[in-house]
Design a protein that fits this description.
CATH architecture: Alpha-Beta Complex
CATH topology: Fumarylacetoacetate hydrolase, domain 2
CATH class: Alpha Beta
Number of strands: 18
Order of helices and strands: EEEHEEEEEEEHHEEHEEHEEEE
Structural class: alpha+beta
Helix content: 10-25%
Number of domains: 1
Largest sheet: 6 strands, mixed
Bound molecules: manganese (II) ion
Strand order of the largest sheet: 4-3-15-8-9-12
Distance between the termini: 38 Å
CATH superfamily: Fumarylacetoacetase-like, C-terminal domain
């Protein structure tokens, strides 16, 4: 980066995630999210879970939330949790072959794809973009990352979410319709992937609404956990 550059207004900080056991932060470039990647969730949302091509939307990097306190957002009465494994890329590229895709992965984390379901539903009905339902402030609570060099690449790992101590979502990353290497390869045919990109890999069944005061506790076994209170 050019250190001599001067800006006409102050630039915003680079969104970044802590890494377990490592000094320094992981700087986030983009956040890609896959839709309907677990068959039981596709069915609960009223869709056919057959293996149609994956589809993606994005959240903004500065939608990441690290404080553990999720402020109930504006303009909605129906905010839903979606627990997801997060993939963090150390390398990018275009047209990355499936068999080389895992070479791009820096590590993994646990994230929540918080969703204004009422607004998303209206946008679906009107055939409009999902952004107002998905890419709002603090819509991406995320855990620290853990390097793949420490844990490998999870292919069998239980994923669950409790709200106020009650199990709401339960699955396993082995139930993903599109596996991590396939998602990286597919995305790299649509976008130039970059170091710092995150991929939220989809959610198992059981999504639902939260209210102020609720505490969400999500786990991806062997990767990490995340506790977020709705305030
Ligand atoms: Mn999601």
């Amino acid at each position: 980066m050019d250190t001599d550059v001067s800006y006409v207004i102050d630039p915003q900080p680079i969104p970044a995630l802590p890494v377990r056991g490592v000094e320094g932060l992981f700087p986030v470039h983009r956040i890609y999210c896959v839709g309907r990647n677990y068959a039981d969730h596709a069915i609960e949302m009223g869709h056919d879970p057959s293996r149609e091509p994956p589809f993606f939307f994005q959240k903004n990097p500065d939608n990441l939330l690290l404080t553990g306190e999720f402020a109930y957002p504006d303009a909605t009465k129906d905010v839903h949790y979606e627990i997801e494994m997060v993939v963090a890329l150390a390398k990018g590229g275009r047209d990355i072959p499936v068999e080389r895709a895992l070479e791009c992965v820096y590590g993994y984390g646990v994230g929540l794809d918080m969703t204004r379901r009422d607004l998303q539903g209206e946008m679906k009905k009107l055939g409009r973009p999902w952004e107002i339902g998905k890419a709002f402030e603090h819509s991406a609570p995320c855990s620290e990352l853990v390097p793949a060099s420490a844990i490998g690449h999870p292919t069998n790992a239980a994923v669950w979410l409790d709200v106020n101590g009650q199990r709401r979502q339960s699955g396993d990353v082995n139930q993903m319709i599109w596996k991590v290497p396939e998602m990286i390869a597919y995305l790299s045919g649509l976008f130039e992937l970059r170091p710092g990109d995150l991929i939220m890999t989809g959610t198992p069944a059981g999504v639902g609404a939260v209210q102020r005061g609720d505490v969400m506790h999500g786990v991806v076994e062997g990767v990490g956990e995340l506790t977020v209170r709705v305030v």
